[in-house]
Amino acid sequence: MALFGSRALLRKIIEETRSSYWFWPSTLVVGGLLLGRGAIALDLHPDLLPFNLPDRLTAIDPSSASNTLSTLANAVIGVAGVMFSMTLVAVSFAADTFGPRLIGNFMRDRGTQISFGLLLGTFVFNVIVLRAVHDGDPAFVPYIGLAAAMGLTLMSVFTIIYYIHHVPETINVSNIASDLGHKFSASIRKLIDARSNHTAEEVTVPEGTEPRPIRLQTTGYLQQLDRQALFDSATANDWVITVRADPGDFVTPHMVVMEVASDTDLTDKQIETLRDAFATGNARTEAQSTTFIADELVEMIARALSPGFNDPFTAMNCLNWLHAGLLDALLYNGGLTPHETQRVRFQHLDFPTLFRSSFVAAAPYTMTDKMCRERHLTLTQDLLDRAAGDCRDAIAALVPVLTAPHQPIKLRGSLDAV
After folding, report:
1. What are the sequence ranges of the domains in the chain?
2. Which residues pair with 250 in a beta bridge?
3. Is the separation of the CB atoms in 220 and 253 below 8 Å?
4. What is the spatial order of strands in the sheet that 211-215 belongs to?
5. What 8-state DSSP symbol labels residue 108?
6. Is Transmembrane helix among this UniProt entry's keywords (predicted)?
7. Could you read off the pLDDT of 86-126 as tens digits, one per residue?
8. pLDDT (0 to 100) of residue 412
9. How many helices (H) and strands (E) does the chain have?
10. What is the dihedral of CA 121, 150, 52, 47, to 10 degrees?
11. Cross-strand partners of 260
12. 230 partner at 20 to 30 Å CA-CA among 141, 208, 363, 405?
């Protein structure tokens, strides 16, 4: 298989790159290197410029230019080290306070990545221009590069001001809950929109057809599932595929991730194509896994109500965001209704399952605090007033548990003990 023969693998790599702290800083370092070489090239051919540099800028001698560039480079790299230390402190604080699974949200923060990268790029630019200064015969001072270095350093000063403001904002608990809540709602709406645009094909499995199990050759959490690749393979070969694993599930080479109903045996190439629709990793991610975002909010509730923190207001804030997402699952564009596909059959997420992953999972923690339990009950009652059918039944099962907090939690269709 080619490196990018799998779209699921490519999406996984892109997601991991977005979550990394090296991509934007590395890109801006390379940009500073190229920009420095370009500035020196312009200084060697000043006739390419459509204007002349002011006399005040070209009056500096090589020694002064070298000292200026050296001072700017030392200052910028020193501040970059302080910024990196602040980032590590913020990530460490977030991991201890809100849970290690939320570290990826800080690593993905584009403002932090670009701020750090801009200072590193400015440092590299200053060093490249500094090397071009020649105090000999003939003397050479890259005036354009010097002017650009001062401009980039001034930009770095404003970047530092922004960064000092931005870091406390990233570890503000209300902002963290808000960010997760918006992701939760957006993921639900995306699921609903995708289902409304899908036209189900009526396909039946011929009698006597033996489903052929497909297993992956890797162990880990399913991070990406290329549904379109499965649809294309099933349509081209007249298969019916039943997918047994969802994004976020832990799989091993001994587990069946899908079954293929086919009249003929599958070739090695066909099996490899089907396997390429899955990409695994070492941890669950928010990509294609709505319930994982709910788990992160529930984890924040659990930590907020732990004896070490005892912060009911943060827990109630997380409940509000879970409630907002569940309202979308109930009311947005018809809601998160049961969905079936015939050609490729997935385990589609429905409202009762999402409700159990969020409000039911949070119940053991909210019942330890009177304010949180009352807020939880109020939000549950609001959902109950808006729901009908199976959705209403799933919500109604939680109401007596919240009103009688000393009773054990045993809800139909949920975990025996949440």
Report:
1. 7-171, 178-188+290-339+349-403
2. 221
3. no
4. 211-215, 256-261, 240-243, 344-345
5. T
6. yes
7. 888 888 887 777 777 777 777 778 888 899 999 999 999 99
8. 44
9. 17, 7
10. -30
11. 212, 241
12. 208
